[in-house]
Amino acid sequence: MSLNGSDSYRPRIGLTTYFQKASWGVWTADAAVLPGTYVQAVVAAGGTPVLLPPVGTDPSIVEVLDGLIISGGSDVDPEQYGAQPHRLTRAQPARDVHDIALTKAALDAEVPLFAICRGAQILNVAMGGSLIQHIPDVNPEADYQPAPGVFGNVEFTTAPGSISRHLLGPSASAPCYHHQAMDRIADGLSVTAAAADGTVEALETATGGWALGVQFHPEQNPNDLRLFNGFIEAATNYRKNRTESPGNVHQHV
């Protein structure tokens, strides 16, 4: 049944996940895992979450999505940007391959893309950028990862004319948890938010569809859904434009 024109339709939002050992009930086994705050934020903003574990990667899945979230997680494998691993770098290479493939597919199709923390780093690396593998090596005063399992807080300013400025205003703060950061910014990306110490807090594509990468964790603040609301609005508009286009060959059913 076609849902074109239905006011009750909720945009389908893909979210990348971990695939690793986890426990539930009496069981311990490999599982697709994603913190519930991501799916709760998508639902609260009006979307339908679709989990995309890094198993059986199929970039064409973007054809049936209205938006894609590259979620946070472990460090990006430095091999992806031609560097040797730092002693503190902990990567999951299979997930990197998965997330980079989906990121490129979304960018190519101009599917709205919201890349969070590690996801923002994936966006930069996928487009040819690089990362600082351990922030304290270059900025000993940084406190973006206060303690294991404890979120910090980052204050930042946004660039005029950007998605970040439109949704958050000239300045904002957000939960953060990372020990890596952007280094070389990929061609085709621009920095649209930064902390006082210069740490990149948001990246956006210069051309193409709606794409935003944030170094912080907006899903950890359920009382501030401005970025998720903006993303879901972009996903809604993307689907509307696609289904109303005369040359459209992909219809949601």
Q: Can you characterise this structure?
A:
The chain has 6 helices and 13 strands. It is globular and about 50 Å long. A hairpin with a 2-residue loop joins strand 2 (18-24) and strand 3 (27-33). The protein is an alpha/beta fold. Strands 4-1-5-6-13-12-11-8-9 form a 9-stranded mixed β-sheet, sandwiched between helices. A two-stranded antiparallel sheet has the order 2-3. A two-stranded antiparallel sheet has the order 7-10.
Short overview:
The chain has helices at residues 36-45, 93-109, 118-126, 135-138, 163-168, 226-244; strands at 12-16, 18-24, 27-33, 48-52, 67-70, 113-116, 131-132, 152-158, 171-176, 181-182, 189-195, 200-205, 211-214. With 253 residues, it is an alpha/beta fold.
Summarize the SSE layout with pairings.
Blueprint: E1 12-16, E2 18-24, E3 27-33, H1 36-45, E4 48-52, E5 67-70, H2 93-109, E6 113-116, H3 118-126, E7 131-132, H4 135-138, E8 152-158, H5 163-168, E9 171-176, E10 181-182, E11 189-195, E12 200-205, E13 211-214, H6 226-244
Parallel strand pairs: 1-4, 1-5, 5-6, 6-13
Antiparallel strand pairs: 2-3, 7-10, 8-9, 8-11, 11-12, 12-13
Uncertain segments of ≥5 residues (pLDDT<50)? 1-5, 249-253
**Annotation field: number of helices:** 6
**Strand sequence of the main sheet, in spatial order?**
4-1-5-6-13-12-11-8-9
Beta-strand proportion: 25-35%
The main pleated sheet reads as: 9 strands, mixed
The total of beta strands comes to: 13
Helix content: 25-40%
Structural class: alpha/beta
Order of helices and strands: EEEHEEHEHEHEHEEEEEH
Q: Give the averaged pLDDT, no decimals.
A: 93
Query: C-alpha Rg, in Å?
Result: 18 Å
How far do the termini sit from each other? 5 Å
Shape: globular
